[in-house]
Amino acid sequence: MDHAAELTGAASAALIATGPGRDCLAGIRTTGPHHVPETAPRLRVPIHVGDEAFGELRLAGRPGGVPFTAEDEQLVRVLATHAGIAVGTARLYETARQRERWIEGAAAVTIALLTALRHALTDAAGRPGVTRVEVTADAIAALPDGRDGVCG
Fold it and tell me: Which InterPro entries does the UniProt entry name for this protein (predicted)?
């Protein structure tokens, strides 16, 4: 946003995140007056993350009321494209971190269940005259059911 304003000479720039649950002003930069007159030149460029419309980069006000050029618009489009790529990359990173946490949790549950099964098998195997089927059934019956805090 700052680069867009600096490169085009805009007095103010705003990044607007739009969409479900995102209708908000993500940032604003003002180099001139806090209020840009309605008659001041304006430039709005969409920001896309993949095929999703994520928001807009908005610029307003130039020295002497000079309108934004096609070159300004192209430059801001390139910046908006890079912003969309950055948001997409951040989303991918967060998805990867979430999957990592799920895998860590699943591994912890698996270890707890296998440890409980091993203890139950060891305890049941020491009884005379007990068959493997009985040992396995006893071990399965001894597995935590989630009420003792092991799984819950």
Answer: GAF, GAF-like_dom_sf
Other C-beta atoms lying within 10 Å of the C-beta of residue 148: 9
Concatenated DSSP letters for 111-131? Answer: HHHHHHHHHHHHHHHTSTT--
Q: Which two tokens stand for residue 43?
A: 């430039």
This prediction's pTM: 0.63
Q: In the chain, count H helices and then E strands.
A: 3, 4
Q: List the structure tokens of 115.
A: 């440890």
Closest CA to 11 of 62, 45, 56, 58: 62
Of residues 17, 73, 86, the one with CA closest to residue 42? 73
Which residues are CB-neighbours of 144 under 8 A, at least 6 positions away? Answer: 112, 113, 116, 150, 151
DSSP reduced 3-state for 122: helix
- State pLDDT tens for residues 17-36: 776 665 555 555 555 556 66
Residue where the block lists tokens 């946490």: 101
